């Protein structure tokens, strides 16, 4: 079992997209009130006095859309300059990235994941729920800016939806051939949105791998990440092709992460809601960081059981939080 040293930090639940797999279509979102967000100071208190003493050294900033968080460059700089930080990354939709990619890099961010579910602007806009305003070009500009600045690895996340974008798998994989880009194909998950595409099911990573293997060939990559992706390479390609198979292949034994929501809830497992701790309310009510550290340590001890025994609830339970609120 992996040691848990990786914290995914949701900075905000708001997003400038309404991606169908992340936010329920047609539903009014119950956004967190701004006063209920963890403040910058509270976040840094938890990092310095709870998580880092427990061995956390890897941090990823997520949302919603993290670039909507005020002072995002300063937050990046503050975390990057902590002496215990070994790795700092971000997941973004890329829409606001181009103008600040250089500032984020200069602040200490080195790794970035950008969502790119389609190379076709019309399909892309359909997936993100653009409400009549095309956003593909801005996202593509953000990807190009990140590449030019020097983010490495530059990862592109693709949620594969049957009948929507699955016909683009080969085109997306081809992006890895002549650039050091890393495509990550992600099986669609019905978290907080279990009726979406229920008539189509989901496409397994094994199926996607076979499509790519039949076209180009596919070998296991010598590049291995610490996350859940199984990583492969098209022969002679500069980049890699990864598959995150949370629906078809259990990777609980490799899970080294927990998630902190924008309003301070600590969630040990993406696939179920067991064992969450409300760190923000405890902190604001005067519970000491030492006491919170003990609570988190107990949760880390329970995490393997939560992962394995509760995993199957992922396809049947009603979730209180959509993916946008969990932080992916």
Which structural traits does this protein have?
single chain; 328 residues; alpha/beta; twelve-stranded mixed β-sheet; 10 helices
Description:
- With 328 residues, the chain is an alpha/beta fold.
- It has helices at residues 40-51, 72-80, 101-107, 121-128, 136-149, 169-173, 205-215, 279-284, 289-310, 323-326, and strands at residues 6-10, 58-62, 87-92, 111-115, 154-160, 181-187, 219-220, 230-233, 240-244, 257-260, 265-267, 277-278.
- β2, α2 (72-80) and β3 (87-92) form a beta-alpha-beta unit.
- α1 crosses α9 and α2 runs parallel beside α3 (101-107).
- The chain is globular.
How would you concisely characterize the structure shown here?
The protein is 30% helix and 17% strand.
Rounded to an integer in angstroms, the radius of gyration calculated over CA atoms is 19 Å
Q: Numbering strands along the chain, what is their spatial order in the largest sheet? A: 7-8-9-6-5-4-3-2-1-10-11-12
Q: What's the helical proportion of residues?
A: 25-40%
Mean pLDDT rating:
86
Order of helices and strands: EHEHEHEHHEHEHEEEEEEHHH
**How many alpha or pi helices?**
10
- How many β-strands, per DSSP? 12
Low-confidence spans:
314-319
Largest β sheet strand count, sense and barrel closure:
12 strands, mixed
Category by helix and strand content: alpha/beta
């Amino acid at each position: 079992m992996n040691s848990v040293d990786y914290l995914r930090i949701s900075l905000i639940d708001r997003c400038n997209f309404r991606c169908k797999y992340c936010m329920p279509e047609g539903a009014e979102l119950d956004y967190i009130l701004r006063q209920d967000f963890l403040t910058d100071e509270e976040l840094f208190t938890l990092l310095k006095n709870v998580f880092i003493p427990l061995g956390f050294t890897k941090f990823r900033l997520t949302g919603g859309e993290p670039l909507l968080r005020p002072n995002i460059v300063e937050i990046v700089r503050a975390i990057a300059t902590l002496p215990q930080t070994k790795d700092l990354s971000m997941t973004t939709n890329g829409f606001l990235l181009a103008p600040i990619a250089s500032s984020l890099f200069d602040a200490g961010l080195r790794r970035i994941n950008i969502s790119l579910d389609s190379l076709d602007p019309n399909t892309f806009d359909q997936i993100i729920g653009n409400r009549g305003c095309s956003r593909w070009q801005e996202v593509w500009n953000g990807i190009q800016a990140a590449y030019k600045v020097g983010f490495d690895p530059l990862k592109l996340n693709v949620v594969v939806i049957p009948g929507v974008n699955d016909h683009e798998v080969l085109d997306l994989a081809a992006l890895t051939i002549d650039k050091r880009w890393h495509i990550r194909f992600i099986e669609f998950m019905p978290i907080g949105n279990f009726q979406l595409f229920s008539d189509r099911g989901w496409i397994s990573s094994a199926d996607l791998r076979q499509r790519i293997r039949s076209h180009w060939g596919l070998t296991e990559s010598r590049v291995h990440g610490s996350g859940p992706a199984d990583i492969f390479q098209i022969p002679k390609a500069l980049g890699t092709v990864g598959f995150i198979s949370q629906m078809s292949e259990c990777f609980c034994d490799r899970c080294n992460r927990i998630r902190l929501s924008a309003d301070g809830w600590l969630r040990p497992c993406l696939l179920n809601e067991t064992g969450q701790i409300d760190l923000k309310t405890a902190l604001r009510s005067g519970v000491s960081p030492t006491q919170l550290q003990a609570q988190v340590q107990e949760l880390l001890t329970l995490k393997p059981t939560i992962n394995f025994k509760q995993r199957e609830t992922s396809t049947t339970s009603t979730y209180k939080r959509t993916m946008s609120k969990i932080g992916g």
